Amino acid sequence: MVILTGDDLTLDKVRQVIFEKEQVDVSPASWERVEESRNTVDSIVQNGEIVYGINTGFGKLSDVKIKDQDVKELQKNLILSHASGVGEPFPETIAKTICLLRANALLKGYSGVRPVIIERLLQFINLGIVPVIPQQGSLGASGDLAPLSHLALTIIGEGEVFYKGERVPTCKAYQREELEPIQLEAKEGLALINGTQAMTAIGAIAYLEAEKLAYQSEIIASLTIEALQGIIDAFYESIHRVRGYVEQMEVAKRIRQYLSDSHLTTRQGEKRVQDAYSIRCIPQVHGASWQTLNYVKEKLEIEMNAATDNPLIFTEEDKVISGGNFHGQPIAFAMDFLKIGMSELANISERRTERLVNPQLNDFPPFLSPDPGLQSGLMILQYSAASLVSENKTLAHPASVDSIPSSANQEDHVSMGTTAARHAYEIIQNVRTCLAIECICALQALEYRGVDKMASMTKQFYEEARKIVPKISRDRIFSKDIERMNGWLKKIPLFFLKGD
Known about the structure:
The chain is mostly helical. The protein has helices at 11-18, 28-47, 71-82, 92-106, 115-127, 145-155, 170-177, 188-193, 197-227, 237-241, 246-258, 277-280, 282-304, 329-357, 379-395, 417-449, 456-466, 478-491; strands at 2-4, 24-26, 86-89, 129-131, 134-136, 160-163, 166-169, 312-314, 319-321. It is elongated.
């Protein structure tokens, strides 16, 4: 059971809820904050005060006073009009994470919603009701308005959800679970959609996948080092210690652990004096990518526990203040940084793949073919990796440097953080495929080099991987091998990859 407090949600807890299906609940102290915040909203409505988001219009229409009897309709209209997302829906993992992060943010007690709103989000998570949320349509500044509006639709019984393997109208899932739609009251519509939870949820799932890939890149690179009889001296501890980057030292240490008892690695001068950079500089390049991952993790965990609503209700100070915490610039930068860091793991992986298949760079049969000429072997796998690497270069263009004014120029600077996060997620899928290709090529090269001479840890990985992609004895449809390897890498337990 994961207990939400609004203050201490971590990426590891996200992993437990989303991938390990842990149930969620709320700490009693958090409920108290929520109720106090709601009491403030009720008091404002009863006293006839004019406060943005409670009894006014929105954005450029914030100067329009709403009649008391129309406040509930105002909130519903807000959701209906802002549910303007387009494109394919988010994967269920991301949509479920949006629910989790929105519930956690509301539990901080600065948004003024009733507990029933948060309880519904928890029911979604625990019952497996996942809102259908289109991926495109957010500028990432007034909060993720369009995506979060599609989440809010399901709370009021509108829209669609994924439920028990089907995409169904929300009302159908409600009937099966004996739930009733919730009528939104003052402030609640705005509180549901004004926040950065869409971009942050994409970022959280992207990070969790990226972290696993970063570990996988090291053991797959270790297979390649053995296949190419790489020089182990380049991973000598003192080399990395004198530069001083912790992440670089940790990568080198894990490579040394993976290859500690290998009979395939060489010493400098035995076969060559130095390896190419894609082998020799693995700690420096992969370590730099780990630096970006650490930065991204820090920013995501801050944002996951942040109050990003507007206006914010400060109960103890008896103030309701409009600000700009919904602006996604910190996450936009982090996601653009993630894009670059992960793209480089694919870049260097593709270069290692080239060294495995190019007969001018190794002593294997051309393209690792079982019968060169008659059979092309793994020639085109490198093409596919090169194509993905090139695509990543386009996706890695920073979204955060763009801004398009909206809401009649009231919202005149936006972050494009959700676009950055979406592109980061796409890049990570491409990175996994590039690593799958390198892995397939390294496995085949090791058939020629001598599996019996492999290190204990890499041989264990080899044997498990061979259950997924068998030895290549003749040409076949390699896209199926890539797909199977890709799927296996996505599911493989994280603990196996840390060199523990």
